[in-house]
């Protein structure tokens, strides 16, 4: 299985990079996982609704340019469906069973995802109704993908 995680912005925090690298190393025996960073759009702190839409649209264009046409896209979005770790494992297992070997997870920037990215996605996933920094979501996502593979192989992992 080939998994891409497309994310907006550079990861600056060393502790998050270290955590992500650890899970990517663990995942390497289960799947090929790559993280693709696209540039975030520089914007002032206070934005009008139109400016927010424009920022999301520009970031969305960069995201869409990185998505393979044959990839099953799962967008991380607050309005998405919440799943347990077991349900995410089941989702990944079903995708593999039905021949979907390319899966792309998308993490938007601080303003979220454009409508075009949401439309391109095959499903939307929410980790919580809470808002998390998008850099932290990378770590949470790779950990949950790792957990899903462990669950699907009936291998022990802390609960």
Output the strand order for the largest sheet.
Answer: 2-1-4-3-5
Beta strand %:
15-25%
Class computed from helices, strands and strand pairing: alpha/beta
Shape by Cα distribution: globular
Helix content: 40-55%
CATH class: Alpha Beta
Helical segment count:
5
> What is the mean pLDDT?
94
- Radius of gyration (CA) equals 15 Å
Can you count the beta strands? 5
CATH superfamily: SPOUT methyltransferase, trefoil knot domain
CATH fold field value? Alpha/beta knot
Q: Report the order of strands and helices.
A: EHEHEHEHEH
Low-confidence stretches: none
Question: Sheet bearing the most strands, described?
Answer: 5 strands, parallel
Distance separating the two termini: 25 Å
The figure for the number of domains is: 1
CATH architecture label: 3-Layer(aba) Sandwich
Question: How would you describe this protein?
Answer:
With 159 residues, the chain is of the alpha/beta class. It has a single domain (2-152), classed as SPOUT methyltransferase, trefoil knot domain (Alpha/beta knot, 3-Layer(aba) Sandwich), CATH 3.40.1280.10. 44% of the residues lie in helices and 22% in strands. It is built from five helices and five strands. It has helices spanning 14-27, 49-66, 85-97, 115-120, 134-152; strands at 2-8, 32-38, 72-82, 102-107, 123-126. A five-stranded parallel beta sheet has the order 2-1-4-3-5. Helix 3 packs across helix 5. The two termini are 25 Å apart.
